[in-house]
Amino acid sequence: MPSMHSAALIAPALATRLGASGERVLLMTANHAGLRQTFIEGGRLRFSRLIEVIEAKLPEQERKQVLHSLGAKCADTYRASLIDRYKGNPKGFLEEGRRSWMAEADYDEAKGLIRIVDKSPHCSCPMVKEGSTPPSFCDCTLGWQEEAYSTILGRPVKAELEESILRGGKKCVYRIRVI
What we know:
By secondary structure, the chain is an alpha+beta fold. α3 packs across α6 (about 140-155). The chain is globular and about 50 Å long. The protein is about 40% helix and about 25% strand. A hairpin with a 2-residue loop joins β2 (about 35-40) and β3 (about 45). The model has no long low-confidence stretch (mean pLDDT about 85). The N and C termini lie far apart (about 35 Å). It contains six helices and seven strands, in the order αβββααααββαββ. It has a four-stranded antiparallel beta sheet, covered by helices on one side. It has a three-stranded antiparallel beta sheet with strand order 1-2-3, covered by helices on one side. It has two domains: about 5-45, no CATH class; about 60-179, Trafficking protein particle complex subunit 3 (Muramoyl-pentapeptide Carboxypeptidase, domain 2, 2-Layer Sandwich), CATH 3.30.1380.
């Protein structure tokens, strides 16, 4: 099966392969939809300035909806490689998470409640630059969590943050509730 890649998501590796050096790189790609500019800083994909604009221009509820939608689209990039493998098997997904990126993962099936604690002492989102990405960007990860766990559980869920690195916490802690 052929693989499909998003230019934005492979941009850091592509820039390195092309020999683009320096702290900041602007990669431009063209396709049928037009030109796309991808900003890479320190080898990582960035768009914190876009989030600052969204934060300044959109009312809070609209901003949250946009960021949730962005997170859901991001989850789609993990659908084939991760999420779809665990449809109907949340315990298997949480076991995989514990091996890879979760410090804790508790699932109370009777209450329809999942609690996740990330392992990393830093924000795990590759789009985030701690110190410059606004804390409101955590709404994006809530969209990711909702898309991923709704798919895995086969039921709608609501994700909430108990704690977040971008919002001043020591770690990221999520609570996912079946609705």
